[in-house]
Every structure is written in C-alpha cells, then in structure tokens.
Amino acid sequence: MATSGDPRDPIDLRSDTVTRPTPAMRKAMAEAEVGDDVAGDDPTVNRLQRMAAERLGKEDGLFVPSGTMANLVSALVHCRQGECIVMDQSAHTRVYEVGGATAVGGILMDPVPSCPDGQPDPQAYEAAVYPRNLHHPRTRLLWVENTSNRGGGTVVTRETMRAIRQVADRHGLALHVDGARIWNSAVAQGCSGADLVRDADSAMFCFSKGLCAPVGSMIVGTRDFIAEALRRRKMLGGGMRQVGVIAAAAIVALETMVDRLREDHDKAKELAQGIESIPGLSLAMPAVQTNMVYFATEGLGVSPRAFVTELGTEGVLCYDTGNRIRLVTHYDVPAERIPDAVARMGRVAERMAVR
Ligand code: TLP
After folding, report:
1. CA of residue 146 to ligand 1 center, whole Å
2. Is the C-beta atom of 70 inside 6 A of ligand 1?
3. What CA–CA distance (Å, rounded) separates 47 from 114?
4. Which residues are within 8 A (CB) of 332 and not within 5 positions of it... i.e. 6 or more apart?
5. Does the pLDDT of residue 91 top 90, yes or no?
6. Which of 4-8, 168-172, 326-330 is least confident?
7. Measured between alpha carbons, how far is 11 from 30 in angstroms, rounded to an integer?
8. CB of 290 sitting under 6 A from ligand 1
9. What backbone phi and psi angles, to 5 degrees, belong to 198?
10. pLDDT for res 285
11. Is the dihedral of CA 286, 292, 260, 202 positive or negative?
12. Which of 101, 166, 309, 322 is such that its CA lies 20 to 30 A from the CA of 15?
C-alpha cells in the first residue's frame, strides 16, 4: 500500500485540467436527456447554454468541445483575414493554441508586453492599435485573459476591464475575454462572473478545469454573435450530436463547483508559503491570487526542467514553462496533501543543492 511521501502515490499539480468528473457528474451524465444538438434538439445542452449566458449576463451561449475551439471560433467571428487581435504577448491563445487564429483564419495576433503584476496595461493595448490608413493591417479586436495563465493565475479587475473597454470604444474595436478560469477570478475578487465580462462583447470559459467537468467550454455573447459562432463551430467540425451526456456534467459543474474554487486558492497560498521556506526556491510572482503558483530554481543553480524531472521521482507532477515551474491546485489534490507536496519539494531541493 502506498504511504504518505510515497512516489507511487503521486500528487498531480500539472494542471486543473487533470480533475476527473465527480460522482454527481457521472450520475447526471448517465441520466441526461439528449437529442441531436446539431439540429438544436438536445434539451440538456440548450439548458446549459441558457444557464451560462444568464450567469454571465449575455444573450446567448454556445457549448464547444474545448477552450481552444472557443477562442478560435470567437476570433473567427470577430475578425476577417488580414485583421489583427491585440493581446498580451504571453496570452494562451498566442502561445499554446497552435497559432490557430493565424493558421485557420489568417488573423494576426499583435503582442502587448506583459505587466509584471499580471494586470493588462490599457495604454499598452492602445499603443498596439494600428492607425487606420492604407498601409496597416486593420486592428479589429482586443483580447484579455482572466485569470492570466502565464501571468501567474492573476485576476484582471473590473476597473482594468473598464479601461480596456474605453480603448476599444475610442477605436471602434470589439473586446473578447478568454475566461478559461473566469470563475476563479470572480471567486478571488468576490464578484460575479457577469461583473467581469460586462464590458466584453464576447467571452468564453471552461468547464473542464477547476470546475472538474470532463469536457467542454462555453462561448457567450449577443444572439447574433452566437448565431455566427454556431456556423464557425460547424465549419471546424465541432458540431456534436447527443452531447447532453457531457453538458449534464457541465451543469453540475456550474451549479455546484464554482464556490469551492476558493479552496483551491487557499491550497495554492499554502503551497506558496511552503515553497518560500525551501532554500534555493523562490516565488516568481509576488502574490498568489488564485490556483496557480509559479516559482524559480535559480537559487539552486539547476534548471526548471531538471528540477521538474527530479520532482517526478518523488511523485510530484508539474510542468516547467521554460524559466519557471508552475503548480496548479485543484479538487483532486485535497488540502491534506499540500504539506506532503512541500515536504517532497524540500527533499528534492536539498538533494539537488548538494550536487
Ligand atoms: N490551459 C491548459 C493547457 O495549456 C494545457 C493549462 O494547463 O493551463 N485559455 C487558457 C487561459 C487556458 O489556460 C487554456 C488551457 C485554454 C484557453 C485552452 O483550453 P483547452 O485546453 O480546453 O483547449
């Protein structure tokens, strides 16, 4: 039998995407009422889409298989070939979505320098908007990620959203939110999801991260926007049939898993405190706001990659992002396991320091 600290009993902090559906979700999936969703006939999907749109204060919603598709479909609705989206240089869509907007839509993704505190800088967005003339490509869309993944899981505030909306209005642009973890942001800020996307024309969020559903993301926007999004989803092969079986899990996620995200944030804070106490490791972000902890290994004189590999032998699973290491807390790593994770990291740091 595996015991505490036993590498055969891994602590998986790679991502909140590793969470598995809860028993309540599996039950709802088994019992879901379904129909052909491409024909608009799946009552469970229709209910989920209405529910999500209502919670985010938008007219309509569209269920899609993944966050990547949610972002791609949104970009394709907002922009035509040769047009530009302004986004943080480290935005997930720029860095981790295979360049889909450019590859599929011929859309440029213009980078804005990241701010050290993870808060987008409205002035930097404004500076990246092309003037309208014969020569430049046309800027069409501003893009904000909330929470910011490579920004350390930091939240974007309502004030920042308002300021970016003003930039959009000054230049006649649309505003999209990659809200893969919008509920983490809302819970951390003590506001509603709707508060955070009020200034946006469209937004997406994921069910299959901290909310623990097995599959699926949601796009929300006006009725017209969603009608166009439906065509793009179909074009990309994302029209699904009796998809109520997974929408049922997403309903459970939305109804029961949002408030508990604060537990994940507490676990991340505890993890960060533990890391601070380990000689040679240092936090890469000043404050942990949600469920991510980024740290550096410079003080040990070893590369993040080498540290991650060694951590794997102790049964702590995580990813490096080049110059840093990311840990993500979630439902499937209970609070009781955090001290064990810290202890394992401490052992690895000690071993590597003496080499
Ligand atoms: N992020 C994942 C993947 O990079 C593996 C992670 O572990 O953080 N937007 C943001 C901000 C995201 O973090 C992600 C996924 C996506 C979009 C895409 O969602 P999926 O993976 O459902 O396509």
Report:
1. 12
2. no
3. 38
4. 12, 18, 19, 20, 212
5. yes
6. 4-8
7. 29
8. no
9. -55, -40
10. 84
11. positive
12. 101
**pLDDT, tens digit, for every residue of 260-312?**
999 999 999 999 999 999 999 999 987 899 999 999 999 999 999 999 999 99
- Residue 321 CB–ligand 1 contact under 6 Å: no
Question: Which is it for strands 138-145 and 83-88: parallel, antiparallel or unpaired?
Answer: parallel
Residue 2: burial class (beta carbons within 10 Å; 0-12, 13-18, 19+): exposed
pTM summary value? 0.97
Q: How many Å apart are CA 61 and CA 216, to the nearest integer?
A: 13
Task: Provide the H-helix boundaries in the chain.
Answer: 23-31, 43-55, 67-78, 92-95, 100-105, 122-128, 158-171, 182-189, 193-197, 223-235, 244-256, 261-276, 304-313, 338-353
Instruction: Please give the average per-residue pLDDT across 125-144, as a whole number.
Output: 98
For residue 184, give the amino acid letter.
N
Ligand 1 mean position to 180 CA, how many Å? 7
Q: Is the CB of 153 under 6 A from ligand 1?
A: no
Q: In a mutational test of the pocket of ligand 1, which residue from 149, 215, 321 has the highest number of ligand atoms less than 8 Å from its CB? A: 149
Contacts of 210 (CB under 8 A, 6+ apart): 16, 19, 181, 183, 184, 257, 261, 264, 291, 330, 331
**Encoded tokens for 105:** 């839509």
Task: Calculate how far, in angstroms, residue 100's C-alpha sits from the geometric centre of ligand 1.
Answer: 14
Closest atom of ligand 1 to 208 CA is 22
